[in-house]
UniProtKB/TrEMBL annotation:
Pfam families: Aminotran_5. This is Cysteine desulfurase-like protein. Gene3D superfamilies: Aspartate Aminotransferase, domain 1, Type I PLP-dependent aspartate aminotransferase-like (Major domain). It comes from Catellatospora citrea. Residues 22-392 form the Aminotransferase class V domain.
Length: 406
């Protein structure tokens, strides 16, 4: 059954404004059921968490529902779901807590393909503890992150490997499961950045071998909130700095202050929305998520091929190299035009596409593009249409002609 794009788009009122959105990698539009769920909390009697009265019990239920929803999305244990303001804040939290036991002689492995939020926190805490940072390099000619290099990078001194499930710059999907297998054979923890990958494919943290997996709801039609999942037993052995009166229980131990109950209700609604993207999906919510996100992956892949082939055929447009099997994200430049200028010209035409390094600092530094403005990023999301792609291609084609004649 073909993916029902009209049905999918109907859930996003903001699309009625007429913009062509290729910016979901920076933050997707919010689905209507999410907005309604958030609104209902703000309009209803919801207090801080308490067993003593109904509004307090509602808050307890909202938090529990959100943990179950994220667990279903990722194939995780609800008792191991920790919420935070952003993926970056959660990586810092885990890094600072794990690093308490690190010291000189210890090593960590990070990747130059990753978003800086899965690089800098680890580098900084390693430096503070006197540990050594080792780098996994991607191939600039192909955009691939070779698995074999981890055989040399991981040893008895390694304490953690941090790697992305999907590059937010070029979409590369490293073989996380194979990398994790090498790490686990040496008794090493694996922290996976799933922020860019989660919206575009089914996720199973156990199959990936992720000891920690972080994702951001605002990348999959939800509110601006993030979650990091791990085995509750792993969380139980970690002790972050916290207020004395706050709960010592897992996962509450890692969540500081009162959460946004409205946002958490939105997280649950976003997961339910994703589970319903394929109306033919049946079974548990987890089963419906797997079916729906597989349909999303296939739909986006076909549309993305149209985009990449179209860009590659335009004289004067250069694409950042990337594997064929990737998340539906491409970075490109138009002649010698500064990427910010390209983004502005597209924006003036109602096309939303970011320019810069998108916090993929190491990637663009390695490619020698960061100082000259990075690139323009175009991403496919499940509300993107073939018409959107054709409008973007026409606009880039016109810009390339202008740049050639300048």
């Amino acid at each position: 059954m073909a993916f029902d794009i009209a049905r999918a788009r109907a859930a996003y009122p903001a699309l009625g404004e007429g913009f062509r959105h290729f910016d979901a990698a920076a933050g997707s539009l919010v689905a209507e059921p999410v907005a309604q769920a958030v609104d209902a909390v703000y309009r209803g009697a919801v207090a801080n968490r308490s067993d003593a009265f109904a509004p307090g019990r509602r808050a307890i239920g909202i938090v529990a529902d959100a943990r179950r929803a994220v667990a279903d999305l990722l194939g995780a244990d609800p008792a191991g779901v920790v919420f935070g303001n952003s993926a970056t804040s959660l990586v810092y939290l885990v890094a600072r807590t794990l690093a308490q036991s690190w010291g000189p002689g210890d090593e960590i492995v990070v990747s130059r393909l990753d978003h800086d939020s899965n690089v800098r926190p680890w580098v900084q805490v390693a430096e503070e503890q006197g540990a050594t940072v080792l780098w996994a390099e991607f191939d600039p000619a192909t955009g691939k992150l070779a698995t074999d290099q981890y055989r040399d990078l991981i040893n008895e001194a390694t304490r953690l490997v941090a790697v992305t499930a999907g590059s937010n710059a070029i979409g590369t999907r490293p073989d996380v499961a194979a990398i994790a297998a090498l790490a686990h054979a040496a008794g090493v923890l694996v922290f996976v950045d799933g922020v860019h990958a989660t919206p575009h494919q089914p996720t199973d943290v156990a199959a990936l071998g992720a000891d920690f997996y972080v994702t951001s709801a605002y990348k999959w039609s939800g509110p601006h909130l993030a979650a990091c999942v791990a085995d509750p037993a792993l969380w139980a052995g970690m002790f972050p700095a916290k207020l004395r009166p706050s709960s010592d229980a897992v996962p509450e131990r890692f969540e500081f202050g009162t959460p946004s109950f409205a946002s958490l209700a939105g997280v649950t609604a976003a997961v339910d929305h994703l589970a319903g993207l394929d109306p033919a999906a049946t079974g548990t919510r987890r089963e419906r998520l797997l079916t729906s996100l597989a349909a999303v992956r296939d739909y986006e892949a076909d549309l993305f091929a149209r985009l990449v082939d179209g860009l590659a055929a335009i004289d004067g447009v250069s694409l950042c190299p990337a594997p064929a099997d990737r998340c539906p994200t491409v970075s490109f430049r138009v002649g010698s035009q500064h990427p910010a200028e390209t983004s502005k010209a597209l924006g003036d035409a109602g096309i939303c596409a970011f320019a810069g390094d998108y916090y993929a600092w190491e990637y663009f530094h390695t490619m020698g593009l960061r100082e000259s403005g990075g690139a323009v990023r175009a991403g496919i999301y499940h509300y993107t249409t073939a018409e959107d792609v054709d409008v973007l291609l026409d606009a880039v084609r016109a810009l390339a002609k202008q740049a050639a004649g300048a």
